[in-house]
Amino acid sequence: MFYNKDKSSSTNTVYFSKGETIWYSWSNESPGIFHTNVAVYKDTKQITTGYKSIPSLGLDGGNVSAPESGYYHLVALCSAGDQNRCEGGGKNCAVVLSPSCYKNYD
């Protein structure tokens, strides 16, 4: 997500088998001034309960179990999807949480 450009962003899809743990993270960076709300989706269906709010200059994430086999992606909204002054990126990470899940992604 780029400052003064995007109100929302979505990662590429990643395949997970039913029951597999989906680890995800999002990093907000300068010059962003708004929090980002992130959630995991399968197609157009949100599978995380609510959105996880990431502070304007922060890094956070979580995990959820894949309810069925298929392709999942992370959706991020700048504020409530009505602002474009966020900067940052996220990534879906496979089964084992690894340090690479907590880096900045375009």
Number of strand elements: 9
Strand composition percent: over 45%
Radius of gyration: 13 Å
The number of helical runs is: 0
How confident overall, as mean pLDDT?
77
Secondary-structure-derived class? mainly beta
What helical percentage do the residues reach?
under 10%
Low-confidence stretches: 94-100, 102-106
Main sheet attributes: strand count, strand direction, barrel closure: 6 strands, antiparallel
Overall 3D geometry? elongated
The SSE order reads: EEEEEEEEE
Kindly report how far apart the N and C termini lie: 7 Å
Structure description:
This protein is mostly beta strands and 106 residues long. Helices cover 0% and strands 45% of the residues. The chain has no helices and nine strands. The strands form two sheets. Strands 1, 2, 4, 5, 6 and 8 form a six-stranded antiparallel sheet that branches. Strands 7-3-9 form a three-stranded antiparallel sheet, with no helix packed on it. It is elongated and about 40 Å long.
